Amino acid sequence: MKSVILCAGYGVRMYPLTTDMAKPLLPIRGKPIIEYIINKIQKVERMDEIFIVSNDKFFNQFNKWLNNYPNTISIKLINDGTNTEKEQLGAVKDLELVIDKKNIEDDLLVVGGDNLFSFALSDFIKYSMNITPKPLIGVYDFCDKAKQNKFGKVNLNDNNQIIDFNEKLSNSKNANLVAMCLYFLPKQTLPLIKKYLSIYNDNGSIGNYIKWLSKNNEVHAFEFQGDWFNINDMDMYTEAVCSF
Fold first, then answer.
1. Burial 27-62 (b: 16+ CB within 10 A, else e)
2. Residues 124, 138: contact at Cβ < 8 Å?
3. Which residues pair with 166 in a beta bridge?
4. What CA–CA distances, in Å, run from 81 to 10, 26, 76, 101, 111?
5. What is the pLDDT of residues 21-61, one digit of tens each?
6. Helix pair angle (91-101, 206-216), 10° resolution
7. CA torsion sign, 67 to 77 to 179 to 166?
8. How high is the pLDDT of residue 244?
9. Which domains does the chain have, with CATH numbers?
């Protein structure tokens, strides 16, 4: 099993804090956000390699950090070659880049590089094994309405299959559930990324791909319990610094 951590964004909503520093390298209690993510991934059974995709602007920062990080499994850094927000490939194309460049033909755990969470990934992976080859996404119950509006919402049937993926599902059965940037993509489904990009050539959120995938395939959701901070603005970063 492989994992990809998506770290090629420019964090523009957190300027000036991220003007000259990659968001996943911002500290929480003296440790970069990405190290908390890697610590969780390394504990996943069968995990044997982690790929971090960065942009060119922050590549040297990640490289310097990685050279001093005491990892327990193989971690490789990939440069997507972009230097500005206007040039950015987008998460789906970055994911395609890693898969093609590293010839990945294995099950893939995908995590956003700004995800800070307290829970283990073992039950998520166990659930994914039970439904393979169906993709699985992580979801979280946000009772805070203001926070809900920052994320794509999901509606599930009784079998935890996604039946709708939308930003406006306030009247749905699962009105509080939002999609995390945490996905398990079985190896059988990886070719679907190229199919999607051949249709849409999308340089936006990976949520667009998951929405398309759920309309064309059976995609399931796993609800996490615990603390989760998606560091997508200064308010969330401040909250994470104070309470994680």
1. ebeeebbbbbbbebbeebeebeebbbbbbebbbebb
2. yes
3. 153
4. 13, 22, 16, 13, 20
5. 999 999 999 999 999 999 999 999 899 999 999 999 999 99
6. 80
7. positive
8. 82
9. 2-243 (3.90.550.10)
Which has the closest alpha carbon to 178: 209, 147, 204? 147
- One-letter amino acid at 243 equals S
The owner of tokens 């099993």 is 1
- How far apart, in whole angstroms, are the C-alpha atoms of residue 171 and residue 162? 15
Q: How far apart are CA 184 and CA 202, in angstroms?
A: 20
Residue 156 to residues 180, 183, 220, Cα–Cα distance (Å):
15, 16, 8
Position of tokens 């990939």?
A: 78
Measured from the Cβ of residue 207, the count of other Cβ atoms closer than 10 Å reads 19
Q: What is the pLDDT of residues 181-210, one digit of tens each?
A: 999 999 999 999 999 999 988 777 788 899
Tens-digit pLDDT profile for residues 230-240: 898 898 899 89
Residue 201 corresponds to which tokens in the numbers above?
């050539």
CB 120 within 8 A of CB 137: no
- Return the closest-CA partner of residue 185 out of 100, 243, 99, 113: 99
- Quick: pLDDT tens for 208-219: 899 899 988 999
